[in-house]
Each structure stands twice: as C-alpha cells, then as structure tokens.
C-alpha cells in the first residue's frame, strides 16, 4: 500500500509540474535611463532584476555592454547580443561570470543572481545607437537589516558621518512602496525594501543629489558599511478586486515545482520558492497551516525564513530521521512550489519495489493474453457464421 501511495504521489507531482507561464521574476525599473539623462539605481544582491531596452522587440541587432567603474580609461564591453548567446568569447573572468548569470528576454537584460561585484554601468545598444543607460549599485543582501513592526523593532534611521576635507555624509534609507499583502482573507504580512543612500555636503553647500552608498564609497572609501533594509508588518485584507490588482505582476508566476526531500538526522533543508524575490509578496504553508515571519520568530522553531530574498527560502532543520511534512509556497498569491519531506521509513524498500514491478508486469501480461484470446475467439466466431467455410 505504501509503495502504491508513493507511486501515485510521484505521478501527481509530475502532472502538476507541467504548466505554462513566464519563468522570470524580478525587480524592474520603469523608464530606461538615457545617455543624456543618466540615472542611478540601487538593487539588492542575490535577487533577480530586469533592465529594459525600449523599442527593440523585433530588432536583431541588440547588444548589452558593461563597464566596471574601477576600470579606468576603458570602454564598455559587449557581453550579450541577440541571436548569439555565447558571443563574444570574453577573456575577462568577471565578464564571463556576468554573462553566465544573464540572458536576454525580448532584448531586455535579465540578471538571475547579481552580486555586489556586478555593480557598474549597463548600456543597451541597437546597432550603433545607444538605447538605454543604467548606473547600477547592487547592495549587499548579506548585510540587510530586517525589522518587524509587530515586534517593536526599529529601522536604521539616519546617520551623519564626518569625512576628510570638511565633507559631511548623511546616510539614510530610501524606501520603496509597500508591496501587496502576501495573502488575503487571513492574517498575513507585507514588506517594503529600503536602499542605502548618501547625501554629501561641503562646508556651505550641497554636493549634487543623493546617490546609492556603493557609488559614493568609490570616492570616499572611509564611508562606513551601511546595508539595505527590509521592513515587515502584519496585514489583513479581504479577497476583493483591489487586492488582486495590487498583487498582480506582469512577470507573474510560471510553473508549479514539485520536489521531494528525504531528511537525515541533524540536517537542514533549504526550500527555495520558485520565482520568488525580495521584491514580490511570498508566503509559505506547512500543510494547511500558514507560516509567517512573525510566528516563526516568536516561537523560535526549527523553521525560519531567510533575509536575503525576503522569505523566498524556508530553512527546515531535522532533529531526527522520522520527520514527514509537506510545504507550499505562493508568489503574488499563486501556488508555485510544493515540497514533500518524507522520512526514509516511508520510502519503499528495493524488495517492495521489485514486488510492485512484478505485480504490474503480471497484470500487463495477463491483460495482453486476455485481449489476444478475445481477438482469436472473435475470428473463430466470424468464420463459423460464413457458409461454406471449412475449418482445418
């Protein structure tokens, strides 16, 4: 019975995994920057991003170039081009790594897992024309400050630092809008992302507009490390049209992934929710029970949500080898991942599998023989009905 249950579960899992949709999820910006009006952008490392190149959907000559600000007196280097995913053959190790983690989607640049070293200048070109220009600062997700309003935790606030030459640097957090509540009809959570920015002032005047911290640090190396932020609070919204519109994303969830884990004593599993990122609402369930960051922090359980992706990874620790549970994760209110954790005792032994396969084989052979017998009998019956037919 156990082996049949495992077989049925595997079949259902494979069936559920076959769905259509968009495979990409990440933060994106609205209007692209142009060379005459360059803009400065901040993102969180380890979370996917889109950089758009407008009006190039049907162009066969789109390319993306990169320039590290540390490369003095050098020109941007092409690392991706439409129609030639492996072109060019890059000699620089950093550009090869950037090429491997990036791809073009309708001419737009998708970076799956950016690191702080990928900060720099990104340029989209169509032939010889520059279409879009981005100065990007990827801020370290490993130093993100997470605060939950329901626990009375506070944000970082502002800080003023004295630098050389009578220069002052005011560090502050630039907040994104609140995301939609991660679920409706029940108590849930919502979050927003904060990026580290700096306003530099001289003795009597302000020196330009605020910039992301990584860009300022190139000119003022003594600037202290000041990471991004993630703010979380509880929410409770009805399941109405306004919530559906607020949680809707153009890069909506794609497919349902079904994965099975077999726990070992004192091991830890990291369940990664497909298409999730710090920029989108994501929540987890253990069976029918919802898991929120607040609940997991309050009960100090063996389960926890990661900081870098805003809860896109659920950590589950096993104290023994007889643990069994199922988990589901949702992105923008859509079910995208199912994880089955089954102890080794629930796994069919080789003898049980051999017996199951023998039973199936016997059923198939028996059914085949039965069908052949029916066909043979029908032939005999039809021959008997024909006058003048002689049976040998």
TrEMBL record:
Belongs to the FAM187 family. The chain crosses the membrane at residues 357-377. It is found in: Membrane. This is Ig-like domain-containing protein. Keywords: Glycoprotein, Membrane, Signal, Transmembrane, Transmembrane helix. It is a single-pass type I membrane protein. Residues 1-17 form the signal peptide. PANTHER family: FAM187, PROTEIN FAM187B. It comes from the Eukaryota. Coiled coil: none annotated.
């Amino acid at each position: 019975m156990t082996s049949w249950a495992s077989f049925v579960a595997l079949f259902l899992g494979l069936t559920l995994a076959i769905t259509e949709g968009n495979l990409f999820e990440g933060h994106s910006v609205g209007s692209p920057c142009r060379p005459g009006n360059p803009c400065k952008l901040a993102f969180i490392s380890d979370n996917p991003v889109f950089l758009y190149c407008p009006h190039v959907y049907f162009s066969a000559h789109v390319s993306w170039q990169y320039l590290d600000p540390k490369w003095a007196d050098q020109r941007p280097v092409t690392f991706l081009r439409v129609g030639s995913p492996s072109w060019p053959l890059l000699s620089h190790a950093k550009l090869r790594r950037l090429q491997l983690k990036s791809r073009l989607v309708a001419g737009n640049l998708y970076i799956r897992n950016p690191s702080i070293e990928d900060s720099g200048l990104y340029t989209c070109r169509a032939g010889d024309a520059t279409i879009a220009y981005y100065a990007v600062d990827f801020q370290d997700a490993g130093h993100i400050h997470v605060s939950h309003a329901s626990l009375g935790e506070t944000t970082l606030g502002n800080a003023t630092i004295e630098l050389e030459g009578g220069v002052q640097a005011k560090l502050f957090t630039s907040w994104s809008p609140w995301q939609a509540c991660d679920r409706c009809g029940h108590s849930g959570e919502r979050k927003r992302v904060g990026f580290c920015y700096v306003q530099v002032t001289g003795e009597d005047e302000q020196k330009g507009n605020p910039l992301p911290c990584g860009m300022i640090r190139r000119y003022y190396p003594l600037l202290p490390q000041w990471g991004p932020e993630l703010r979380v609070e509880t929410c409770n919204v009805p399941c109405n049209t306004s919530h559906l519109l607020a949680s809707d994303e153009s890069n909506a969830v794609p497919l349902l992934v079904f994965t099975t884990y077999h726990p070992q004593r004192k091991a830890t599993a990291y369940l990664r929710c497909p298409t999730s990122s710090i920029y989108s609402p994501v929540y987890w369930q253990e069976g029918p029970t919802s898991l929120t960051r607040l609940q997991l922090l309050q009960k100090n359980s063996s389960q926890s949500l990661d900081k870098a992706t805003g809860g896109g990874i659920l950590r589950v620790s096993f104290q023994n080898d007889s643990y069994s549970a199922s988990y589901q994760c949702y992105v923008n209110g859509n079910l995208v991942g199912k994880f089955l954790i089954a102890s080794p005792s629930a796994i069919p032994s080789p003898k049980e599998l051999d017996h199951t396969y023998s039973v199936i084989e016997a059923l198939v052979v028996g059914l085949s023989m039965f069908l052949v017998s029916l066909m043979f009998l029908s032939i005999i019956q039809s021959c008997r009905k024909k006058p003048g037919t002689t049976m040998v």
